[in-house]
Design brief:
Elements: H1 4-13, H2 15-30, H3 34-45, E1 49-51, H4 53-61, H5 65-86, E2 91-100, E3 128-140, H6 142-209, H7 215-250, E4 258-260, H8 272-282, H9 284-304, E5 310-321, E6 337-346, H10 354-420, H11 426-461
Helix pairs in contact: 1-6, 2-7, 4-6, 5-6, 6-7, 6-9, 6-11, 9-10, 10-11
């Protein structure tokens, strides 16, 4: 059984494979000749697509393999339900056949006094017999009703599993979307930090020439600049990896240029009461477990139905005559059209206790399903507490992270002024720069943490 957590882990677990595949694809495109280069130039000339979170989710739903499998399974289960309910209705067939049987003696009369010779094979009515009949058949039994209930429950369970897969995909896309967005912002932070370090190196060199600082300050500034350049390279690689991972879900060509668009203000967190009500009503995992229990109840009913008789009804109308015609030959023109009806009652008598064993099997499986449902209910309570606590904590930290960025920026500005005036050391300047970069990166990580926690909470409540 597929669930949203496994799907999310699968999407995240493919990151290394996605990156390697993109590299191999780039190598293959590069070796394919001038035609590929021309196509790449045309793609590069087009403006990059602007992708919102809703657009990313829509694109991912049309390309992710596990979600497509869940959708196909849900559609097949709905067809099984329709087939099962159709089996409860009468079936209509139209049969046509011709029977030939060796006659007893030429020109001999049959026992009924007709000039038609009697057949040797007594199961047939005449040497030449034409059948053209429509038959309506219906079987009434508890087993067929229980089977229809079981397929209905399985279809509802498949729909719940499809919803689980959808929510898991949405949660994974949210994580990749905001992770890529944060990687782009961290790249911008790294670029600003690299320029800041270069300017600081230039400033320390000027102060050394003016004999206002020692050469050790220049060395320290150069080390800081080199470190920021390495951080910039790492941030550029991280941003490219994040874009490729998300691009695999969004485009046929993962290297398609695009830009992400998201609101600057994080969405609000609903109250705990609203979360609990939504989870009790819309939790897909709980609904899947409940439908599994309903299917188990139908299995028990179907097993017990073997104790009861089945009633069969059949009505036939058409031709069963020596001529393929509605009327017979001769001056009488006898009517060959007629009907027959039959009622059959099959009463089970003895099957060496197999029915009793099947009932016992179905009851054992139902008991296991009941335990699974109870476990799902307990897990839902625990997951709700964990997810809501995580979302509330990360939401509260966002304001603190914004304040830390502003404080670090002001500290860097004051330290720079103090350093220019000779009142601060190079170590204080380096610490102020590092604190500012760390605060900005922490703010980006905090936004990703809150969005991911909110997506997990919405996965449980179905409010996404």
């Amino acid at each position: 059984m597929m669930d949203g957590v496994n799907l999310k882990m699968k999407v995240h677990g493919k990151r290394a494979i996605i990156t390697l595949a993109a590299i191999l694809l780039a190598a293959a495109r590069g070796a394919s000749g001038q035609g590929s280069v021309g196509q790449s130039d045309q793609a590069a000339a087009q403006p990059p697509a602007v992708i919102t979170l809703e657009e990313a989710i829509h694109r991912a739903q049309s390309s992710e393999a596990n979600y497509a499998a869940a959708v196909a399974e849900g559609r097949a289960a709905r067809l099984d339900r329709n087939i099962a309910y159709a089996g409860l209705l009468p079936s209509v067939t139209y049969n046509n056949s011709f029977l030939y049987t060796e006659p007893q003696r030429p020109n001999s009369k049959s026992s009924s006094g007709s000039s038609q010779p009697a057949p040797i094979y007594i199961a047939n009515n005449a040497p030449r017999e034409y059948l053209s009949q429509g038959t309506v058949t219906e079987t009434i039994g508890l087993a067929s009703i229980a089977g229809a209930q079981r397929t209905s429950a399985r279809a509802a369970q498949a729909a719940a599993e499809q919803e689980i897969a959808r929510r898991g995909l949405v949660s994974a896309v949210v994580s990749l979307f905001y992770g890529s967005l944060a990687a782009d912002h961290k790249l911008a932070v790294a670029e600003r930090a690299s320029h800041e370090a270069a300017d600081f190196t230039k400033l320390t060199g000027q102060r050394e020439q003016a004999r206002e600082s020692a050469h050790a300050d220049v060395v320290k500034a150069q080390l800081q600049e080199q470190s920021r350049q390495r951080d910039l390279g790492d941030a550029r690689i991280a941003a490219e990896k994040a874009r490729l991972e998300l691009g695999v879900l969004l485009f046929p060509e993962p290297r398609t240029p695009y830009t992400l668009s998201a609101p600057d203000v994080a969405p609000m967190l609903a109250s705990r009461q609203d979360i609990d009500l939504a989870a009790a009503k819309n939790n897909a995992e709980l609904k899947s477990a409940m439908e599994a229990l309903r299917a188990s109840n139908a299995d028990v009913l179907a097993a017990r139905a073997a104790y009861l008789p089945d009633l069969g009804l059949e009505y036939t109308y058409g031709i069963d005559a020596p001529q393929f015609a509605t009327t017979g030959p001769g001056p009488d023109h006898m009517n060959n059209l007629g009907y027959s009806a039959s009622v059959t009652l099959n009463i089970p008598v003895w099957d060496w206790l197999n029915t009793q064993r099947r009932v016992k099997q179905s009851e054992i499986r139902r008991q296991s399903t009941q335990v699974a449902l109870t476990a799902k209910q307990r897990q839902l309570i625990a997951k709700l507490d964990e997810a809501y606590s995580e979302a509330a904590m990360s939401r509260d930290q966002l304001a603190s992270l914004d304040l830390s960025v502003n404080t670090a920026a002001e500290s860097l500005r004051l330290t720079k002024l103090a350093y220019r005036g000779g009142e601060a050391t190079v170590l204080e300047m380096v610490d102020a720069q590092g604190a500012y970069v760390a605060a900005q990166n922490a703010r980006e990580d905090g936004r990703v943490r809150y969005e991911a926690a909110l997506a997990d909470l919405q996965t449980l409540t179905g409010t996404m």
